[in-house]
Amino acid sequence: MQNITVLAKVKQDENFSQDTSEFSSVGVMLVSQDLRVMYYDSKAKEICLSARQVEPPKDVNFPLPHEIVDECSVLKGSLERGSKSAHLIRQRYILSGENKKLRIETSTVRQPVGTVPTNCFLVYLEDLSEAGKDREEILRDRYYLAEREIQIAWCVSEGLSNKEIADKLFISRFTVENHLRSIFYKMGVENRIQLTRLMKLP
Questions:
Q1: CA distance to 67, 99, 139, 170, per residue, from 31 (Å)
Q2: pLDDT per residue over 134-186, tens digit each?
Q3: Rounded to two decimals, what is the model's pTM?
Q4: How far apart are CA 16 and CA 5, in angstroms?
């Protein structure tokens, strides 16, 4: 069911690569039967770049780690041998070039192409070094937010106004506004809605 949901999202939105949680430790990519990357989110790209690299296919703008190629190739071989399983799945763990432990889960999925469905591979990549982190650690490590900025970001995500934040934290509205400008810049957002979306994502 999860594979169907992800595939539906991919088909619905060709900008799927941008719709990813900044806080998630899991990336998603879709690989064709001839081992070309069809879709990916930014977390998958980040994990691929941190892993041991090989020459990418000509139409891919980042290296596809050989471990993913190997896993897809094994599943492709099973399909070519006429495996009766409608849903094949493999899982492996690797150490990346940055001494991070990664989990790769690869499964087969049917992708409608015209009137003839074709097999492709759905790949989940999980950075286990980030999986144990809480959001505040990620806010500090990835966005370099100070403790006060983290407090204010959470207040914004709870729907508080600048005045309410100032009253809650015993600081002035001017201080809140200064911190918000810094938060927006560091997190690459333009408004409270985008900030709240980042803070609320699982």
A1: 13, 25, 31, 52
A2: 778 878 888 899 999 999 999 998 889 999 999 999 999 999 999 999 999 99
A3: 0.55
A4: 13
Structural domains in the chain, sorted by start: 2-131 (3.30.450.20), 135-197 (1.10.10.10)
Q: What sign results for the dihedral spanned by CA atoms 190, 138, 141, 148?
A: positive
CA–CA dist 127, 97 (Å, integer): 13
Tokens describing residue 121: 């591979």
d(CA 135, CA 157): 13
Strands, DSSP E only, in the chain? 26-32, 37-40, 89-95, 101-113, 116-127
3 state SS of 28:
strand
Compute the distance between CA of residue 48 and CA of residue 97 in angstroms, rounded to an integer.
Answer: 10
Residues 61, 52: Cα–Cα separation, whole Å: 16
Phi, psi for residue 30 in degrees, rounded to 5: -120, 125
- Alpha-carbon distance of 100 to 87, in angstroms, equals 29
Residue 158's identity, in one-letter code, is E
